[in-house]
Amino acid sequence: MATQNNDTTVIAAVSIAVAIAVMGIKYVAYLKTGSVALYSDALESIVNVVTAVVALITIRISARPADRRHQFGHHKAEYFSAVVEGALIIVAALLILREAWDAVQTPRELKEPAVGIAISSIATALNLAWSIFLIVFGRRRRSPALVADGWHLATDVATSVGVLLGLWLAVVTGWKLL
Q1: How far is the C-alpha of 9 from the C-alpha of 11, rounded, in Å?
Q2: How distant, in Å, are the alpha carbons of 21, 65, 140 from that of 68?
Q3: Phi-psi domain of 64 (left: phi exceeds 0; alpha: psi -120 through 50; beta: other)
Q4: Cβ–Cβ < 8 Å for 33, 111
Q5: What is the pLDDT of residue 65?
Q6: Per-residue burial over 141-170, b = 16 or more CB atoms within 10 Å of its CB, e = otherwise
Q7: Structure confidence at residue 66 (pLDDT)
Q8: Most buried of 18, 48, 75, 125, CB within 10 angstroms?
Q9: What is the structure's pLDDT at 47?
Q10: Rounded distance, CA 89 to CA 48, Å?
Q11: What are the per-10-residue average pLDDT scores of the chain (178 residues)?
């Protein structure tokens, strides 16, 4: 059981590194293009970093043995991570809505969109691979925190694909609002 908890903790720590890497890649895509869509995608990645940290903390807490106050152990702490994930997704949506509204009011000219799309596609592929791994690994280890983190990243992949499609359509049509 200790090895299982240790493996889960290591995977949760790696999630932080992956989230930081994806955030950095997405931010580079934004810098290359000036696209508010890619900027909002990078903003959402901040939430991924925070939720990965929360998952690690709750996994470590859940690994503690039972004590006088928690006679059945601390394993339910991981459910807190899933709740935080949901709340932070709402915060990210509000941040993205704010950026989108600003872009509607002041459309921006795109620079190097093909480069930005390629860079962001790398981040999206990394997120997809990691989300699948987290869901599978989390289910095997019965870790609600890792499964929730995996599903959160899967939703991030879906929104990133939407951003990439929108950016591609903006380039093809010349319609800046996209």
Answers
A1: 5
A2: 41, 10, 29
A3: beta
A4: yes
A5: 63
A6: bebbbbbbbbbbbbebbebbeebbebbeeb
A7: 59
A8: 48
A9: 86
A10: 9
A11: 72 96 97 90 88 86 65 60 76 80 81 94 98 96 87 91 92 82
User: What does the pLDDT read at residue 43?
Assistant: 86
Determine how many CB atoms are found less than 10 A away from the CB of residue 108. Answer: 14
> Residue 178 and residue 166: Cα distance in Å, rounded?
6
113 phi-psi bin (left φ>0, alpha ψ -120 to 50, beta other)? alpha
What pLDDT is attached to residue 119?
97
Name the amino acid, one letter, at 24: G
d(CA 159, CA 113): 18
Q: Where are the alpha helices (DSSP H) in the chain?
A: 2-33, 36-62, 77-105, 113-140, 144-173
Cα–Cα distance for residue pair 83/87, rounded to 1 Å: 6
Q: Are 43 and 91 in contact (CB under 8 A)?
A: no
130 contacts 19 by C-beta, under 8 angstroms: no
Residue 146 structure tokens: 């890792």
Distance between CA atoms of 28 and 40, rounded to whole angstroms?
A: 13
Distance from C-alpha of 106 to C-alpha of 114, rounded to nearest angstrom: 22
CA 99, CA 10: separation in Å to the nearest integer?
Answer: 35
From 109, 4, 15, select the one nearest 53 (Cα to Cα): 15
- Look at residues 46, 76, 61, 45 and name the one whose alpha carbon lies nearest to residue 9: 61
